[in-house]
Each structure stands twice: as structure tokens, then as C-alpha cells.
Design goal:
Blueprint lengths: L5 H11 L9 H10 L7 E6 L4 H14 L4 E4 L11 E3 L2 E2 L2 H15 L6 H14 L5 E5 L16 E4 L7 H4 L3 H8 L9 E3 L6 H9 L4 E3 L5 E5 L2 E5 L4 E5 L9 H14 L8 H10 L7 E3 L5 E4 L4 H14 L5 E6 L6 H6 L7 E4 L10 H10 L5 E2 L5 H11 L5 E6 L1 H11 L1
Helix pairs in contact: 2-4, 2-5, 3-9, 3-10, 4-5
Length: about 425
């Protein structure tokens, strides 16, 4: 074996390909073909979207597992351990299992270079191929059409939402981004969009490609009713459902889209109302409106684009209205930082800029210039590391205040790591 530990494999993979992001299917498809395929692959649900992908995967996993199906999920990025990316029946697979998959990939890739994400995607598919799964749920890393997971022909596809993010790779408009995401659709196989504002070009793309498409507000919807909610499909309704265990009213949008997917595949994978209810009650997902009680409570969220931050701001207003908020913030410099800060600045009293040790991260000077342009002056910077920023926010906060840690996955990861 080339390397003995998972950490060594991952460190090497980060240096293998000249680009950290290299959209395209030819290289990864070639190596996947050399790995060989099982005769009857598991049923595949591919999940894309600007925001909400992780929540939708978590809900699909929870409900399908409640029904007794054997489920593999592939997601990215991870928060604490790489193994979180590849799960079977909710449990991360072992280091040894991932290393064995990496070794099989290395044996067949020859001179083909693979990005870090491509290596991981192939490892997940290789592990799932021999795990006797009923279904694999694959989260798109970036876009859809040219993302590595798209080498698999999905039996059903879900796009959670369509908004502006990763414009350098996906395009400058919702239409362009929506079409990239719609690349995971396949003719004759159901596709669901959780967004109610679907670009016309995406609807046309599905129609011309023979894709049976349904989307929120047109083919399915939800309504809050008392202490629960109702899901309304074209031919089916589910009443008095429990609210998802994931926090935030936006999770009803995600849950509604998930139920539409399950309804569309019911002939292949029937799911009972009891499994739906139990799955919604028990679903978990770290880093999404994750509340940590204490003398000074902390809220963690990986919102890192304007749409996600709008949702976060709405949640803060409804759940923590009137509280003084101390925000520890970090973000990648290729994000719409101006849009992010604009959407939440009126709710935050004090800002703490946490440094991240990675080239893509926005520097304190870059962020300070944006805060200054918006007239926001209560901003502290110059911390030695993220832990120092966390400590300063907690020290400044009083018992009835809230510390918000948001932005980059890497920032939330650092907070969770210091807790463990």
C-alpha cells in the first residue's frame, strides 16, 4: 500500500492534481471504468443545489434508514473527520476501508491525475459498490453537469435550491447556474427542484430532454398547521407531520422536496408514513443552526453565500430577536462577501474576524475594507488564530447574549474541534 494512514493518503492527494477544482468528467470516468462496476448497482439519488443539499441528504438518509433500507451517503465537505463524507446506515466508514479504496484507485489510475474531491468520490463509489446497499445518496460537490458524482446516472435527482454562488465556475446568472445543476437529470427519470422560482430555461431543458420534472409551488407544497405541517403532492397528502429536527423554517422547504422525491420513487422504494415521521424527528446534521447551550450560548452555521445568510438572518430574527449578537466570521475570498455581510449586518452588534490558514480565505484587510464600505465599525481583527477569536467573543458577551460562529465550513470545523 502506498500509504499506511488516512492522513498520509489525504495529504498526498492534495498535491496530486495541479488544480483543487477541475470540473470535467473524462478523467474520473476513465478511472471509474478501470475499477469495474458491480452488475446491479444500488438505486441512486443525486442531490445538488446552491443551499440545502446537506439537509436534504440527511433527511433522505434518516427516512430511508427508518424504513429499513441499507443506505450509503456521500457528502462534502466534512467538519471533523474525513470519514463523515462516506457513511453507511448513518455511520462513517473506517479509516481502513477508505485506505483500501484509495489503494484500489491508485492501482488503476495509471498516469491519470485526480483532484482531492475526485479521489474521494471514486472511493465512496467503490466502497458502496461492495456494501450490499439498497440506495446510495450522492451529494454534488460543485454545480452538477461536470461534477465528479455525475459519472453515475441517477435514478432520481433533487436540486434543493438555485441561487448565486461559485459564479467563477458556474456562471453569473441563476439561469446559467440552474442549467449547470440540471446536468444531473437523466431522461425518463424523475427530477425534483425544491425552489419555487425555477428559471424557464431549466424547465425547458427538462422538457426537451424527456425528464419528468416537478418543482415546489407547482407540483407540491406544504402548509403549517398547528403544531405540525402538511405536505401536499399531486396525488398524495401527508398530514400532521412533525417539524424536522433540523432548526429553521427553511427546513420545511427542504423536507417538502425530499418527500416529493420519495413519492416519485415509491414504486422502487416505498416508504411508510411512520418512517417519514420518525426520520424527520430524528434527523441530525452538524453545523446547520447548531445551538450549543452554556453560560454564553453559541450558534454555529455554515452559511457562506447571500441566500444562506438571508435564511440565517431570518432565523436569528425569529428565534433570538432582541439579543445582542457577537459574530465570529470567516469566509473564502471568492464568495460574495459584500452580499453576505449586507444580509446580516443589522442583526450583529460586534464582529470578530477569525483567521483561517488557507490561501482561499479572505484576509482581515480584505474583510475590513468591505465592512468599512458598509459603515460597520464594531469589528475586531488581528487574532492569532480562530480559537483566539472565539475566546474574545465569549469574553465580551454577557449571559443573555449570543455568540454566532458562521461563514466557512472550516471555521465551524475549528470550533467543533476545540469542543471535542
Amino acid at each position: 500500500m502506498r500509504f499506511k494512514t488516512l492522513a498520509d493518503w489525504l495529504a498526498w492527494q492534495e498535491t496530486l492534481h495541479p488544480k483543487s477544482i477541475d470540473l470535467g468528467l473524462s478523467r474520473v470516468k476513465m478511472v471509474h471504468g478501470r475499477l469495474g462496476r458491480r452488475e446491479k448497482p444500488p438505486f441512486t439519488i443525486t442531490v445538488g443545489g446552491t443551499n440545502g443539499k446537506g439537509s436534504c441528504v440527511a433527511m433522505l438518509d434518516a427516512i430511508l434508514c427508518q424504513e429499513g433500507y441499507r443506505v450509503g451517503t456521500y457528502t462534502s465537505p466534512h467538519l471533523l473527520r474525513y470519514n463523515e463524507r462516506i457513511r453507511i446506515d448513518g455511520e462513517p466508514v473506517s479509516d481502513d476501508r477508505i485506505c483500501d479504496a484509495f489503494e484500489r484507485i491508485e492501482r488503476v489510475r495509471d498516469e491519470t491525475t485526480l483532484s482531492f474531491f475526485e479521489f474521494g468520490t471514486l472511493a465512496a463509489l467503490d466502497i458502496f459498490a461492495t456494501a450490499d446497499l439498497d440506495v446510495q445518496v450522492l451529494e454534488v460537490g460543485l454545480g452538477g453537469r461536470l461534477d465528479a458524482v455525475n459519472i453515475i446516472d441517477a435514478d432520481a435527482a433533487l436540486i434543493a435550491s438555485i441561487d448565486l454562488d461559485h459564479q467563477d465556475w458556474l456562471g453569473e446568472t441563476r439561469t446559467a447556474i440552474g442549467l449547470e445543476k440540471a446536468g444531473i437529470f437523466r431522461p425518463g427519470r424523475p427530477a425534483v427542484i425544491g425552489d419555487s422560482d425555477v428559471p424557464e430555461a431549466v424547465v425547458r431543458y427538462a422538457e426537451e430532454g424527456g425528464v419528468p420534472l416537478s418543482y415546489a409551488g407547482r407540483h407540491f407544497m406544504y402548509e403549517v398547521s398547528g403544531d405540525g405541517w402538511n405536505w401536499l403532492g399531486r396525488n398524495t397528502q401527508l398530514a400532521d407531520l412533525p417539524f424536522p429536527a433540523l432548526q429553521g423554517s427553511h427546513q420545511l422547504i427542504n423536507a417538502s422536496a425530499v418527500l416529493e422525491v420519495l413519492q416519485r420513487i415509491e414504486t422502487h422504494m416505498p416508504v411508510s408514513a411512520a418512517a417519514v415521521r420518525n426520520g424527520l424527528r430524528n434527523v441530525t446534521l452538524a453545523g446547520r443552526f447548531q445551538y450549543i447551550p452554556g453560560s454564553v450560548p453559541v450558534l454555529l452555521d455554515v452559511a457562506h453565500n447571500p441566500q444562506a445568510v438571508r435564511v440565517l438572518a431570518e432565523y436569528l430574527g425569529s428565534r433570538f430577536g432582541g439579543k445582542t449578537i457577537h459574530a465570529v466570521f470567516a469566509v473564502m475570498r471568492d464568495k460574495d462577501v459584500l452580499g453576505i455581510i449586507t444580509n446580516i449586518k443589522d442583526l450583529v452588534e460586534h464582529w470578530y474576524l477569525a483567521p483561517l490558514k488557507m490561501p482561499r480565505a479572505a484576509t482581515a484587510d480584505q474583510l475590513l475594507a468591505i465592512f468599512d464600505s458598509l459603515g460597520v465599525s464594531a469589528v475586531r481583527s488581528g487574532f492569532a488564530d480562530a480559537a483566539a477569536a472565539f475566546g474574545a467573543a465569549k469574553q465580551d458577551a454577557e449571559n443573555d447574549h449570543l455568540v454566532l460562529v458562521f461563514g466557512s465550513f472550516f471555521l465551524v470545523s475549528e470550533y467543533l474541534a476545540q469542543m471535542s
